[in-house]
Amino acid sequence: MMKVNNRKIIASVAMRTYRANKKRNALTVFAVILTTFLITAVLGIGISYWDAVSQRAIRMNGMDFDMELTEPRADQVELVRDMESVKYAGVAVKCAIAETYRDVSLDKTRLYWVDDTCWEKQCIPAYEFFKGSYPKKEEELVLSTAALEDMGIKEPEIGMELPLTYYSLAEDPERQELEDPVSAQQNISKTFILSGYYRDYSRKQYGYVSQAFYETTGVKQTDFTQGALKITLKKSLYSAKDIMNIQKPLDLQDRQMLIADDHIMQNFIRMAVGVGGLLVMILISGYLFVYNTLYISVSKDIRYYGQLKTLGMTSVQLKRLVYLQALWNSCIGIPVGMALGAAVSAGLIPTALRLIDPGMSGMKIVTVHPLIYVGAALFSSATVIAGCRKPAVITGECSPIEAVSYTGLTKGREKQKERERGLKDMARRNMFRDRKQAAVILGSFFVVLTVFLCVNAVIRGNDAKNILNQIRSCDITVNNQTTLEEKLPLITEERLDEIRAIEGVKEIRPVTTAQMIVPYQEELLGPYYKRLYQSRYSPGDYEKDIEEYKKDPRALNCIFDGRFVGISPEEFRKINDTLGGNLDQEAFEKGETAIAVPFWASAEEAVGKKIRFFLPDGQEPEKEHEITVAATGESSMDGGNVIDDPSEYSGGYCPNLLVSNTLAKKLMGDNILTEVVRIEYEKPYDKETEQAVKSVFRDEKQISFDSKLTRYQEMKSSEQQVKVLGGGLGIILAVLAILNYINMMAAGVQNRAKEFATLESLGMTPGQIRKVLVQEGLGYGILSILLSMAVGLPLSYIVFQSVKVYNMGYSLPVLYNLILFAVIIAVCVMVPPLIYQMTQKESVIERLRADVD
């Protein structure tokens, strides 16, 4: 039997068929464009959004590294740098504290020396900007913008003189110090020259000095808590085994510690699952875009193909005809979709950002990676092939008689016997008479809405204001910097009343503090001290130190002291909520109970017991007081309830004791000193209220402010980038949901043109048909929204928990979602009758005679 090459004939028939079905093919091309645009734009913007969020997290940390080795020896530094898994490692040493600038008291500006690796590879990448150069001469200095603002310098200039008073952090062999040295250190005056300044989002008042200056301080990188080796790995993901592989050869001694996150791999897997789930849903929605249009037109296509089959065309030839048309649709739709995706993600969004913030003109805002476009093209092509596979298979398997009579409807046993009882019943039956078609329409709409809910939850979770609200319990903190030394009453009751009277202030939470001497109490704090000495923060020889402590609680330079902290009722309620809300506020306010706040170890044995203490600055310095410990916050090292200690300064190894301000005033009398005031505004981030609060202390040079608004303003550029990228992602998904519905309904109305003509010939008016279409659209819209809320809300919670970086509470932008749902309902109601009116303009007879196009 001789084989006839009829490929040209098949291609010719396919071309004529393709040209004859212009409207149907236009809808298919539109679906392909949507799919390609979805993958290109969403992936490009999504990756850029995540990069922006990650960069902001690094800037909030102030340095970019993976692990930290404390007090590193020279041999350990070389050993780490030679490790195969280590990319680079830089040394940082805290060597001095700047206390005053001219006559302005500073809030402990820490001065560091870092080597070239740490500065260039780990510091610079974490800054929003850096101007100048790293110090080379002894008097040169680099400062953060936060440190400069603390000095009152708002417009720094390279080369300006900075008269500072500082003290060295060289270890005192006669005592073991805590985080900062005591005031007995000798102060040194020196005029520095500003060689550079930078801004990150940590709000840390840091400065960097030259190696020449560092050598004059006498501090060594092996001094306790001062030196650190910042380690950056070649692979940022590491396991507990990787940590041990690095730590084992280092031969750690004394209180050295390799600080690393041993949960980073689990957190990454959790995040990958959440992001991967979102990506799968996005790909599913892209698949359904194309599949909808192809599946809806199956009925008409197969009847036409059945006619071709009666003329002798084989099943293989019919399948080839179907795939040829799909190929042509792809050749048109995929390039256009890629071009639109590139225009929006790499053109429109960066342009919008640069218009908002001209300072971003030189920044790379959106990641444009060739793999994104290649992946979008391959996925769209595969989607088109998969979408037309079913009509191709049905076409090849149906006999000519079956193909001509094919309707594509799933026949229900009961529904065929139902009588139409009005337009509502007709609309309901039209929605579900083809179950697969209804499932595809609802499924595609549902998937996009669900993805929109998930993406919105992630975007809201990464909002800078939400993050700052989570990590900060008030809008501004006013700090008395003389608390430990001069102990000046700078925050008076008159000033507190003045703050309360400011319009816009919601509440103020004053915090009073005093030195507290605590005699050794075995049952109360004995186990706590044992755990403390077993940690890396152990102050020395446990047996020797405790023996001296038992003899004299003031021994060892009072390192076993604590702070007696008075708090307001509002502060108590916040702390009580953190602890589960089980504490008796009345007993606390009466001065019967207190809350112990340990530092590095658990003090759970103290709960329910009475603690004895003295207040050297109180009304009766030699009188021993006692109070019941009602609760204790767990150490962050133990993963318990970490209380936000409202005091700024630590006293010693004894836990701080939180009591009511009423009791503090009773025991301290006129000697009571307000260390901190925490202030909340009626409207968070209110500039006018903040200015009014700061004006209360405008003449005080020894008062410092830690403002949530200031920190947010420093993050402005980064936050605008995150918001525009996240908002663009949400808008694209919302628009795609609407366009997808329009596409589906246009295809549906086109394919039901002959049905509508038949109904009109039987007496149904065009107005009644429009009402049926309105009710169908309303039904699809309501069902899709209900399904997306039923599944999308819990799913968005799971995705949010998987990808959150900070300990954020789950929330959704309710207003945005309600607006989208309202728009969707409006589109669902308006689009079907509008498409019907635009496409069905011919007379009934002409539409009955014509093939469905």
Automatic annotation (TrEMBL):
**Pfam families named in the record:** FtsX
| Chain segments annotated as transmembrane | 268-290, 326-350, 370-388, 438-459, 724-742, 778-800, 815-836
Topological relation to the membrane, as annotated: Multi-pass membrane protein
Identify the residues that the record assigns to the ABC3 transporter permease C-terminal domain, covering every copy.
278-378, 729-838
InterPro entries according to UniProt: ABC3_permease_C, Macrolide_Exporter_MacB
- Tell me the superkingdom of the source: Bacteria
Q: Which UniProt keywords apply?
A: Cell membrane, Membrane, Transmembrane, Transmembrane helix
Compartment(s) where it occurs, according to its Swiss-Prot or TrEMBL record? Cell membrane
Q: Give the family this protein belongs to, as stated in its UniProt record.
A: Belongs to the ABC-4 integral membrane protein family.
Q: Which PANTHER family match?
A: ABC TRANSPORTER PERMEASE YTRF, MEMBRANE COMPONENT OF TRANSPORTER-RELATED
Report what the protein is called: ABC3 transporter permease C-terminal domain-containing protein
Its source organism is Blautia parvula
